[in-house]
Amino acid sequence: MRIIANEFAKMRHLRLGLLTLVLLSGVVGLTAFRGLASGMANDLSDPAGFAWKILLAGLGFSAGLISPLIIAAIASRQVEAEHSGNGWLLSETSGVTPGRLCRAKFAALGVLVTTSTLAQSLILVAIGFGVGIASPVPVEQWLGYTTAIIVVNLAVLGVHLLLSAVIENQLVCMGIAVIGLFIAVFASALPEWLVMLTPWGYYSLVVPADYVGTDLVYLDIPYLSVLALGLAGAGLFTLITARFDRREA
């Protein structure tokens, strides 16, 4: 807990709160804009909840467009301080190995990313009520998507923490993030087995609503695949950071 608290202290100096706010406001703002541009205001009284479907479809798109890059920037900023200030060595001399430090960074940043993701859903539901959507909130779809996207965001965070720890040039890491962004946006055009090979592809897999023909419908979220991603990501992150513990800083 002392190490994690120290990571939160670093965040204040690195102004990661501002990046987290960009993540939150970017996803919420783009989702709300897409909803209004798609004519949501004309279907507020639809008993089938068409307006909620528009919001969920927009949220799935916005998360895939914004989250990969901002999460990569958050991870990069938190790790870059160790590279520039020889923090790996300083931490190891105080008894904190590189792998342990990476795990502390993940725990601290995971709180930020998870809180931001939860807030996105809550704010958009509040916006839905605020603009006057008359139909009940599709709780199952909102909870299911929110849970799934938290897992995906944390998996992407873990990948970028490891990349930033291994690669000292953070521009390379941000370049990989741009590639991940393209995968997240265009993964729907790829075979599902190929999409599931990268965490960024899951942004497309967990989209909660989309058009099928001319009908906007709820989509089934592949919860087992998301669970597999979470378990595999946790296992690999633990294994790789354990190897970091045995390397020289």
How would you sum up this structure, described in words?
This protein has 249 residues and is mainly alpha-helical. The protein has one domain. α2 packs antiparallel against α3, α3 runs antiparallel to α7 and α6 packs parallel to α10. The two termini are 22 Å apart.
Secondary-structure blueprint of this entry?
Elements: H1 2-14, H2 16-37, H3 50-84, H4 87-93, H5 98-131, H6 139-166, H7 170-186, H8 192-195, H9 202-205, E1 209-212, E2 215-218, H10 223-244
Antiparallel strand pairs: 1-2
Task: Please provide a brief summary of the model.
Keywords: Membrane, Transmembrane, Transmembrane helix. With 249 residues, this protein is mainly alpha-helical. The protein has helices spanning 2-14, 16-37, 50-84, 87-93, 98-131, 139-166, 170-186, 192-195, 202-205, 223-244; strands spanning 209-212, 215-218.
Rough outline:
elongated
Largest sheet: 2 strands, antiparallel
Query: Low-confidence parts, pLDDT < 50 over ≥5 residues?
Result: none
Strand order of the largest sheet: 1-2
**Using only CA atoms, what is the Rg?**
19 Å
**Count of discrete domains:** 1
**Ends: how far apart?**
22 Å
Q: Secondary-structure element order, as H and E?
A: HHHHHHHHHEEH
Tally of DSSP β-strands = 2
Tally the helices: what do you get?
A: 10
Strand content: under 5%
Q: Portion of residues in helices?
A: over 70%
Query: Structural class of the helices, strands and pairings?
Result: mainly alpha
Give the rounded overall mean pLDDT: 91
Transmembrane segments: 53-75, 106-130, 142-164, 171-190, 221-242
Protein name: ABC transporter permease
Keywords: Membrane, Transmembrane, Transmembrane helix
